[in-house]
């Protein structure tokens, strides 16, 4: 967990620095995009690796969901911090950042609650089917939502250097790559769960 906290902290620092410089130096838009992409890829790859390892070891479903949903929570936390520091401090100006921050914060909290509950039940040798179902529903809904978000942002071009005239470009880059990572984690988790159920 310390590794992920440091990863989130350092990446948010780089995101904020590149966002601050992006308005005057268009090349920093690409730096911001690269940081967002790299962090998202790392989260997705390590989550998929851990999920595959758990399934190979024959771990119960609550162990698999506890791991993957924790990664989802960390990604939501990363996005929330990037938003609140970039826009909440006035580095970039976007009047509508607050609802997105609140949504990210709530999603992060929900993911962490479900993950910790599943982990607690696992330590006790128990399995709460209601929490497992909630985890499954959350993962499925998240996959659909993230695919829709990726399509919408890609079609709008809001994450490209052409969007630098508006300060939403930094948020859109975090949205885009975060959504791609969450979609990948969700899709692999659902696929693995279906395969395990068979």
Describe this structure as you would to a colleague.
- The chain is built from six helices and no strands.
- With 198 residues, it is an all-alpha fold.
- It has one domain.
- The two termini are 32 Å apart.
Keywords:
single chain; 198 residues; 6 helices; elongated
Structural class: mainly alpha
Q: Note poorly predicted spans.
A: none
How are helices and strands ordered from N to C?
Answer: HHHHHH
Q: What composes the largest sheet?
A: none
Average pLDDT rating: 87
Helical content stands at over 70%
Principal-axis shape: elongated
Counted beta strands: 0
End-to-end Cα distance: 32 Å
Question: Which helices and strands appear, and what pairs or packs with what?
Answer:
Layout: H1 2-22, H2 27-56, H3 61-88, H4 97-123, H5 129-156, H6 169-197
Concise synopsis of the structure shown:
The protein is mainly alpha-helical.
